[in-house]
Amino acid sequence: xxxxxxxxxxxxxxxxxxxxxxxxxxxxxxxxxxxxxxxxxxxxxxxxxxxxxxxxxxxxxxxxxxxxxxxxxxxxxxxxxxxxxxxxxxxxxxxxxxxxxxxxxxxxxxxxxxxxxxxxxxxxxx
Length: 126
Description:
This protein is of the alpha/beta class and 126 residues long. The chain contains 5 helices and 8 strands. Helices cover 37% and strands 27% of the residues.
C-alpha cells in the first residue's frame, strides 16, 4: 500500500511569517493537529498543535504577532507519494514523528498523520 492511497490530500498549509493565531484558527476550522509550513511555495517546516502550546507556555508570546516560524519544526519528515505505508509508519513510530509531509516535485501534495494511520488500520480491520 502506498502513502498516496491513505494520505490527506492537498492539506492546508500556512506561511512561516503568519502569526501563531492563524495556525490555531486553521487547526480549529479543519480539525487538524499538523500543518505544513511554507515560505512561498517551499516547504520549510511543520507545526503541530503541541508546538504552538509549548511555545506559548514556555514564554509569554503574543499569538497575534509571533510568527509560526518560531514554533515550527524545521526539516520535517518528508516522503514521496509512492512511499510504502509500512515503511513510513515504521519511521514515524521509531522516530516518534506525528506526521509525514508528502512532497512531489518540491510541492506539498499531502500529509500523513497518526490519525490517518489509525483510520487506515480501522479500514483494514473491517
